[in-house]
Amino acid sequence: MADTLRFAFAGFRHAHVLDLYNAVKSKDCCQIVACCEEDAQTRAVLAEGGKIKVTHQSYDDMLGGVDFDVLALGDVYSKRGAMAIKALEAGKHVMADKPICIKLDEFDRISDLARRNKLCLGLQLDLRSYGVYHTMRKVIREGRIGEVLSVVFTGQHPLMPKVRPGWYFEDGRHGGTINDIAIHGTDLVPWLTGHEIVRPVAARVWNSHCALNRKFQDGAQLVLELDNKAGVMADVSYHSPDHLKGMPPQYWRVTIFGSAGLVETSLTQPDVMVVDKDSGEIQRLSPEPNVTWRYLNDFLACVGGSAGEGMVTTETVLAATKAALEAQRLADA
Fold it and tell me: Which CATH superfamily, name and number, covers 5-119?
């Protein structure tokens, strides 16, 4: 990897990309050399904020006219696949807010280009940044609950139609709630358990209460199969109460049952609950420290050729993306 990795940002249509912008800005080894925003209203908001200088109004102009190493992608979901493909065809690495695309044919092209040209893909899969999940992973990998039998995770979000960007609710731009949210779980579960996702068994999406667009599927549930025949059940609906202050205990709660015990935690839980093979008592384990911007650290290691075990890599990004897209396709069928 070069001494300085040059990032060009394309699209600021989702707030998540601001976290990536701040993360890149904080790294001495990274330099932001260009920022593109094609949407006039978003450009006006950025100008008013005064923290991000938009250098280009055309993605193609930036791609063809700026010398950079990494495309940082945060445009509307439906535009990301084509933008990532163009960047990979131009020999650029891609670091994106999730999802990187909303169609399986886009995924196939992205996968082929990244592998064939030895380019790195990164996603803002930030659940791996939290110490509770690292402690959970250690418990499982040490065999304390035996063989993994089943997994349940809940990642319900508030819909907040007055807060979320308007394009979310426009036809064809979002791409589906499973692909949007469940990808965190399709990344987390294999990383925790050591078992890959084989296939989606069942999936359902539906409109339950979103009045802005009755085609918007705010309900989303799925069932997956792991390579050891274990099952995964998940609910990632936009059903959490909008008026709730703070996060509910169900927010990214993960419960894993093993042949000799169980382990559970969530983003709002201060510890990790374990019943292991050596004790019938509930134990509360203190979590490892959180690591801010772990997703970017892993991506930089990938670009530098030093990615280690347990990191987010191009292959884990592809696996998580494919699992989410296939479950979304099953739900849409």
Answer: NAD(P)-binding Rossmann-like Domain (3.40.50.720)
Q: Hey, CA dihedral for 309, 287, 257, 151, is it positive or negative?
A: negative
Backbone angles phi, psi at 129, to 5 degrees: -80, -15
| Whether the Cβ atoms of residue 236 and residue 182 lie closer than 8 Å to each other | yes
User: In this predicted model, what pLDDT tens digit does every residue of 89-111 receive, in sequence order?
Assistant: 999 999 999 999 999 999 999 99
Q: Which one-letter amino acid corresponds to residue 26?
A: S
Cβ pair 75, 83 in contact under 8 A = yes
The residues spanned by each domain of the chain are 5-119, 131-289+312-332
Q: Phi, psi (5° rounding) for residue 308?
A: -110, 180
Sheet strands side by side (includes 30-36): 30-36, 5-10, 70-73, 93-96, 121-123
pLDDT digits (tens, 9 = 90+) for 292-306: 999 999 999 999 999
Instruction: Name the fold adopted by 131-289+312-332.
Output: Dihydrodipicolinate Reductase; domain 2 (3.30.360)
Which of 75-107 are b and which e, b meaning 16 or more Cβ less than 10 Å from the residue's Cβ?
bbbbbbbebbbbbbeeebbbbbbbbbbbbeebb
Q: Give the C-alpha separation, 76 to 279, whole Å.
A: 49
Q: E strand or H helix at 258, and its extent?
A: strand 253-258
Handedness of CA 62, 176, 186, 14 (dihedral sign): positive
Beta bridge partners of 8: 34, 71
Model pTM score = 0.97
Contact 205, 220 (CB under 8 A): yes
Q: What tokens does 53 get? A: 């200088």
φ, ψ (nearest 5 deg) of residue 80: -65, -40
Q: What gap in Å lies between CA 333 and CA 302, rounded to an integer?
A: 36
